[in-house]
Amino acid sequence: MKACTPSSVLLVCLGNICRSPTAEEVFRQQAAIAGLSIKIDSAGTSDSHVGDKPDPRSQRHAKSHGYTINKLVARQVTANDFRDFDLILAMDSQNLADLQAIKDGIIDTEDDLAKLALFSEEDPTYCGSDVPDPYKGDNDDFEEVIERIESSAQAWIESWKAC
Ligand code: 4NP
Questions:
Q1: Running along the chain, 163 residues long, what does each successive block of 10 average in pLDDT?
Q2: Annotated catalytic residue within 13, 18, 28, 57
Q3: pTM reported for the whole predicted model
């Protein structure tokens, strides 16, 4: 049986300037269309872009698909995110491993830390695969990011609507 709609979802990549801010806005729009009330945020495992706006290439490609992400600001994931969010979705398997290490390091007697999963987990098209890091890539790589994010976000929403 599918898990029911989480009340909060955190999208995580490495820098929080390309994939996860894009996923944050795609998820927000898709959840609103589906009538699901979910708190949505994004963060990076690295601190290298904390305080930065999304990469201009991500802003441009997102905008061309109807997603405005220019007001988002990068932040690093924290241990508290595991208490504040029901579900944390990793853009790639390295992000997932890094998140698991943070979760494993949390000394907490409570048993309600965020569930972790790969962003593509529910997606029949891309299941188990990474949303590739586009940072050193070209326009096609940024387009692929949008396509994969739309597909995998929709798959999560569909799984929750069916619950
Ligand atoms: P993101 O992309 O993880 O999708 O935000 C990256 C952004 C910055 C870097 C790598 C990936 N970087 O090496 O600075």
A1: 83 98 98 96 98 98 98 98 97 98 84 94 96 98 98 97 79
A2: 13
A3: 0.96
